Amino acid sequence: MSGHTHGRPGATHRWRLRTAFVLVAAFFVVELVTGLASGSLALLSDAGHMAADVVALGAALVATRIAARPDTTGRRTFGSYRAEVFASGLAVLLMLGVSCYIAVEAVARIGVVPQVASGPMLVVGTVGLVVNIACLTLLRGGAAESLNVRGAYLEVVADTLGSVGVVAAGALVAATGSAWWDTGVALAIAAFVAVRAVMLGREVLVVLGQHAPAGMDADTVALALAGVPGVSDVHDLHVWTLTSGMNVATAHLVTAQDADAHGVLDQAMQVMRGQFGVEHATLQVEPDTHTSCKEVTW
C-alpha cells in the first residue's frame, strides 16, 4: 500500500484531531485535580469520561498515522488498522471502570453529609464546556469526510453533555447548599457513560468477531453478485469489517463455460463498490466445469 496520504480524509484533518487531543488531555488533568480537591463526584465522573475521550482521540490519531505507513515486516497483510479497534476496547474498559468507581463512591456517601465546593465546580465545568465547544467546532469540519473524525466528534458531543451536567450540579449545590445534587448528577453521568461503554463494546466485539458489517446482509450481497450477467452461482461468501469504515469481502463466482471471466470480475467488483461500499473484495471466478472447488464446511 502506498504511503502517499494526500487526499485521505483522515490525513487531511489530522491537525483537527491533534488540536482537540491536546485541549481535551490538558483539561482532563485540570478537571481530575479539581475534582479530587473539591470532593465533587460530578467532576470526577466527567473527568473519567474525558479520559475515555483522550483515548478515543488518540486512537483516531494513531489510526490516521498507521493508514499512511506501509507495513515493513511483510507479516501484517491487512496492515495494522485494527489498532483503532483495540484502543476502542481499552476505552470501553476505562469507561466502565469510571462508572463503577463513581457508583461505589456514591454508595459510600450514604449516611454521610459530603462537603463539596460548588465554586470550583462551576468554574471548571464552565471551562470544560468552552473546551468541548471549541473541540466540536474543530472536528465538525472533518466529521462529514472521515469516519475517524466523526467518531471523535461524537465522543466530544457526549462529553459536552457531561460538562453541562457539572455546571448544573454546581449551580444547584450553590443555590440549595445540598451536596446531594453533586452525587445525583455524578450517578447520572456515570450511568450515561456506562450505557455508551456497553454500546461501544458491542461494536468492538462485532468487529473482532468478524460479523457482517452493520446494514449489510450476506444473502443480499450474494443475490446482487448472482445477478451479474454470466454468474450462475455464488458460494464461499464472507463479509466482515477490518476497522471502522473498512469492509472486506471474499467470494467464489461460478460462471458458464463461455462467459467472459474478465467482464464478470469487473462487473462484480463494481457491484461490491457501488452497492455495498466494499473497496477490498477478493473474488474468484470459476467455470461451472471446475468441480474441484468445494465450499468449506466451517
UniProtKB/TrEMBL annotation:
Q: Which residues cross the membrane?
A: 21-44, 50-68, 80-104, 116-139, 151-173, 179-199
What name does UniProt use for this protein? Cobalt-zinc-cadmium efflux system protein
Q: Which residues form a coiled coil?
A: none
Q: Answer yes or no on keyword Transmembrane helix.
A: yes
Annotated compartments: Membrane
Fetch the NCBIfam families from UniProt.
CDF
Ranges for domain Cation efflux protein transmembrane: 19-208
Q: Which organism is it from?
A: Pedococcus badiiscoriae
Q: Which residues form the Cation efflux protein cytoplasmic domain?
A: 217-287
- GO molecular function terms attached to this record: zinc ion transmembrane transporter activity
Lineage runs:
Bacteria, Bacillati, Actinomycetota, Actinomycetes, Micrococcales
Membrane topology category:
Multi-pass membrane protein
InterPro entries membership = Cation_efflux, Cation_efflux_CTD, Cation_efflux_CTD_sf, Cation_efflux_TM, Cation_efflux_TMD_sf, CDF/SLC30A
Say which domain of life the source belongs to: Bacteria
Query: What family does the database annotate?
Result: Belongs to the cation diffusion facilitator (CDF) transporter (TC 2.A.4) family. SLC30A subfamily.
> Keywords for this entry?
Ion transport, Membrane, Transmembrane, Transmembrane helix, Transport
Q: Short name of one Pfam family for this protein?
A: ZT_dimer
A GO CC annotation recorded here is: plasma membrane
- Predominant location category: membrane
